[in-house]
Amino acid sequence: MSLSPRSLQRPQSLQDQAYQALRTAILSGELVPGQRLIETQLAQKLQVSRTPIREALQQLKQADLVVEDRGVLSVAKFTSEDARKLYECRLALENVSVKEACLNASDRQLKQIENLIEKAEKLLNTKPTKLTSFQLLDLDYRFHREIAQASNNEWLVSLLDRLFDKMILVRIQTMLSNPAVLEVRWEHRQIYDAILSRNSELAVKAIQDHLIASQARVVLELEQIQQAQTAI
Description:
This is Transcriptional regulator. Residues 12-82 form the HTH gntR-type domain. InterPro entries: GntR_C, TF_FadR/GntR_C, Tscrpt_reg_HTH_GntR, WH-like_DNA-bd_sf, WH_DNA-bd_sf. GO terms for molecular function: DNA binding; DNA-binding transcription factor activity. With 232 residues, the protein is mainly alpha-helical. It folds into two domains: 14-75, Orthogonal Bundle (Arc Repressor Mutant, subunit A), CATH 1.10.10.10; 80-231, GntR ligand-binding domain-like (Four Helix Bundle (Hemerythrin (Met), subunit A)), CATH 1.20.120.530. The protein is built from nine helices and two strands. A hairpin with a 2-residue loop joins strand 1 (66-69) and strand 2. The longest helix is centred in the last third of the chain and has 32 residues, at 200-231. The chain is globular and about 55 Å long.
């Protein structure tokens, strides 16, 4: 999704379209964490008035993807402490996710989960670029979301979706400085194997090990970024 000039389609409200366009730009890294958001510029790019842009930005504030400081709006940035707390929430929710997926995952869902792992493995064997990093981030999100859907618990999926949006921004912050934080294919494979064998105890351990290790990598990376910014 690009913010290049274009006319928005009318069947959906302009506010909803602006919201979706801006949300996609934020979660794809087109609008990076910390970037200032100016209504007039965004309205010009999306070829709409400032009113739907203003309303869309308010929605994004409520979703914690946009923050306001002294009247200035910008894409949200998260601290190492924010990341630690977000991972604690993920640990609680995804324990339930993999446990229920062991009981409820269909053969089709298991195949989709495996396909996502295989796509990530192929990407990791190519020359790293900014594009492949964002593709890996998307595959990581889809892997965890597919497991949540396999749990057959729509409320769990809804809660994780809200959490995943914030996690994507956290991962973008760390990925831009160190793409290696996305090297999780072996951990994903272990989670999948446990679900495939319907071993809920092993699946819970695998997801805990994965998220705890990921938390440590991401928190460390954010701490280093914060230290570097403080030193400037």
